[in-house]
Amino acid sequence: MEGTGPGAVALSPWQLVLAASLVLIAGGISFALRLGLEKRLALASLRTVVQLLLVGVILRWVFRLEHVLPVLGVVLVMTIIAGRAAVQRSGRTFPGATWRAVVTLVLSAWLTAVLVTGAIIQIEPWYKPQYLIPLLGMILGNALTGISLCLDQVLQSLAGQREQVEMELAHGATRWEAARAPLADAVRRGMIPIINSMMVAGLVSLPGMMTGQILAGEDPFKAVEYQIVVMFMIAAATSLGCMLIAVLVYHRLFNARHQLLSDLITKRQN
Asked: Where are the domains of the chain?
């Protein structure tokens, strides 16, 4: 094994195979306990390998070009996939949910990532792929979780509390007054994961970016500085994303005549 940088260690194919044996152990335990997770573990492992290898090839090409168009193409694909994943993780959906999730991620994740690379870290140019793509990936991965939880909560509340909401509307409440409580609860639920992560950062676990920099031989204090920026970046994007998706759902499911369009909400078929 040869170092690829200060403290960095290159991994051989055999070492990756050895790492895969850890999943085989998990599969063996699942088989022994009859959990039925072996096929899902195998499929997830295969997808992980194929997807990451493909991403590695694409990113190597994009990094060498350092041109804005390929970078925007990559981040657009990432955003669309994240938007679809956010909607698919929700137990309920409605017509137009996917494109609303994608728009939410564009406005929240892209704005935050560009602000970080251009104004905070001050990368030249701001779209430098070595910075923008990994940072945006971290934002999207966390924001889609928050958006998914927020979306699931607000749709579940509006569907489950339909009679209460309609009663408030019938007694003269505006659509905003009737929807405010479910929307607020949904935003709170979407923010729970990132808030919990921030509360224990460095105490229970070392976040991903910080761990990667330390393994690559970076000074731990510098790694901490970057991780602080990343945590605040993710928190900002997640909170903005949850608020935006809640507002978009509100405008879709309540019409101008202050009526709840609960018939649009459907359960997702597994």
From this structure: 1-65, 67-267
In one-letter notation, the amino acid at residue 36 is G
Distance CA 249, CA 190 (A): 14
Q: Give the mean pLDDT of 38-43.
A: 88
Q: What is the mean pLDDT of residues 194-201?
A: 87
**Please, which residues bridge with residue 9 across strands?**
3
SS3 content of the chain, % helix, strand, coil (to 5): 75, 5, 20
Compute the radius of gyration of the chain from its Cα atoms. 22
Is residue 1 pLDDT above 50, yes or no? Answer: no
pLDDT digit string (tens) for 88-101? 988 999 999 999 99
- For 97-151, write each residue's pLDDT tens digit: 999 999 999 999 999 999 999 899 898 888 898 889 989 998 999 999 999 999 9
SS3 93: strand
CA distances to 24, 65, 227 from 135, rounded to whole Å, are: 31, 19, 11
- The pLDDT, as a whole number, for residue 64 is 86
> Strand pairing partners for 254?
260
- Quote the CA–CA distance of 182 and 177 in Å, as a whole number: 10
Residue 32 · residue 41 · CB < 8 Å: no
- Write down the mean pLDDT value for the chain: 87
Q: Which residues pair with 92 in a beta bridge?
A: 267
Q: How far is CA 63 from CA 58, 67, 73, 136, 140, in A?
A: 9, 8, 13, 15, 20
Mean pLDDT of 31-38: 84
Long-range contacts of 204-207 (CB under 8 A, 24+ apart): 207/231
User: Which residues, including other chains, have CB under 8 Å from residue 260's CB and lie 6 or more apart?
Assistant: 158, 162, 165, 166, 169, 175, 178, 253, 254
